[in-house]
Amino acid sequence: MDSYDDRGVTAGREGASVPGGTDTPDAPDAPRAPGISGGGIAALSLPYQAVAALALAVVGVIACVHLGMVFLHVAPSNTLTKQNGEAIDDWVYPEFEQNWKLFAPNPLQQNIAVQVRAQVRTADGQWRTTDWSDLSAQDGEAIRGNLLPSHTVQNALRRAWDFYTASHDNANKPNGMRGALSERYVRRTVMLRLARQDLGGKVERIQVRSETRWVKAPSWSEEKTNGRPAHRVLPWWPVTDADLPEGARRASEAAR
After folding, report:
1. To pair with 73 at 20 to 30 A between CA atoms, which of 22, 109, 118, 198?
2. Based on C-alpha coordinates, what's the Rg of the chain?
3. How far apart are CA 111 and CA 140, in angstroms?
4. Buried-state track 84-99, b at ≥16 Cβ within 10 A, e below 16
């Protein structure tokens, strides 16, 4: 029969925790904040989950439609493009027009500058014609030395002029349905630039021209280039409220 002391020693050994042993009871899990079951959309309440899912679905549909329209625009002529050509052009032009000249076998060998002058009505009712202003040179100054130049500064004016020349003949007459659209595009782009300048009065009419200079041939080439600039001068265009930044914005909102 065990003595009282032996029983006490045995009970103490069973109940005591041995330092470094493996039979130490685990600590209880830390309580989780109420209402948090995970991250991402799953953490939102049901109404917010529905709104987020709807927004993702709308963005996905728009992205798929855009990719499909651009693909049909650059694809060879087929049944879909013939049946839906007008809808495709309305979607692509002018903001998403594709230009593959980078891969052309004969790259561009000209520097084309877009210039403008304006007829201004002063406060005393007098008319004044400004000098030619080189908008392309202004864009070049804004880009030169800028590590992160704006995409619009680089391409907005150039694409507007390319759009105009592609939709007009050498006599500045439109050769298709997009002629009027390209003219509005050029006027609005130019007026965005002139609106930042103090011309001494209200701009009533503008005239746009291009100055084309051939890129000088390298020293090792025997090719001869003409160093004289060539100009393409457009007729005077009256400026309306729709051509001004605020007027164009109001017209766009009204169309919606």
Report:
1. 109
2. 35
3. 12
4. eeeebbebbbbeeeee
Stated length of the chain: 256
Neighbours of 38 (CB within 10 A): 7
Where are the alpha helices (H) located in 23-150, listed in sequence order? 46-74, 79-83, 85-92, 135-143
3-state secondary structure of 156: helix
| In the block, residue with structure tokens 């109404």 | 47
Model pTM? 0.57
Parallel, antiparallel or unpaired: strands 202-214 and 127-129: unpaired
At which residue do the structure tokens 């880009």 appear? 143
Other Cβ atoms less than 10 A from the Cβ of 75: the count is 11
35 torsion bin: left (phi>0), alpha (psi -120 to 50), beta (else): left
| 245 and 196 Cβ atoms separated by less than 8 Å | no
46-91 pLDDT tens trace: 888 888 889 999 999 999 999 998 888 888 778 888 888 888 888 8
- Token match 């032009």: residue? 93
Task: Give ∠ CA 159-255-173 in degrees, rounded to 5.
Answer: 40
**DSSP 8-state class, residue 26:** P
Task: Please tell me the distance from the alpha carbon of residue 98 to that of residue 124, in angstroms, as a whole number.
Answer: 47
Instruction: Write the DSSP assignment of 221-247 as a string of letters.
Output: -------S-EEEEPPPEE--GGGSHHH
Residue whose tokens read 């030169």:
144
